[in-house]
């Protein structure tokens, strides 16, 4: 099992920003896909953003223009910068990784490593 450790969650007012980080043990270079997912109470886990080994990114329509995913291979860190937060962004946020090479990084089924999650609460 590859430890993925998230940090940076918390509570913020609508319109504010948070920066989530995910530290990857063993080297981020190993993974074809890295992604952020979120799950609100009573809802399915959904994809937020992903980045592949070629640094191609994808975003859910609901976060485009507000969130930015990036990775730092030297620091083995995946980051999600979240701006202009709205209450609907409140959820547990999970870092995920996949060593299955090729294809889209959007699907939850692609990922075989998951972090424990970090909570994000946005108040109106």
Mean pLDDT rating: 96
Rg to the nearest angstrom? 13 Å
Q: Main β-sheet, in a few words?
A: 7 strands, mixed
Strand content: over 45%
Assign a percent range to the helix content.
under 10%
Counting DSSP E segments of at least 2 residues, the number of strands comes to: 11
Count of discrete alpha- or pi-helical segments spanning 4 or more residues? 0
Distance between the termini: 38 Å
Net shape: globular
- The class by helix and strand makeup works out as mainly beta
Unreliable segments of 5+ consecutive residues: none
Question: How do the helices and strands follow one another from N- to C-terminus?
Answer: EEEEEEEEEEE
Fold blueprint:
Elements: E1 4-7, E2 10-13, E3 18-24, E4 33-39, E5 46-52, E6 57-59, E7 67-72, E8 77-82, E9 91-98, E10 113-114, E11 118-123
Parallel strand pairs: 2-11
Antiparallel strand pairs: 1-3, 3-8, 4-5, 4-9, 5-6, 7-8, 9-10, 9-11
């Amino acid at each position: 099992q590859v430890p993925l450790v998230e940090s940076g969650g918390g509570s913020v007012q609508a319109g504010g920003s948070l920066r989530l980080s995910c530290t990857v043990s063993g080297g981020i270079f190993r993974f074809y896909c890295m992604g952020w997912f979120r799950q609100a109470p009573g809802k399915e886990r959904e994809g937020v953003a992903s980045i592949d080994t070629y640094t191609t990114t994808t975003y859910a329509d609901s976060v485009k223009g507000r969130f930015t995913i990036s990775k730092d291979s030297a620091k083995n860190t995946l980051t999600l910068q979240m701006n202009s937060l709205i209450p609907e962004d409140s959820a547990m946020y999970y870092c995920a990784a996949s060593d299955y090479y090729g294809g889209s990084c959007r699907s939850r089924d692609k990922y075989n490593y998951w972090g424990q999650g970090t909570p994000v609460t946005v108040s109106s």
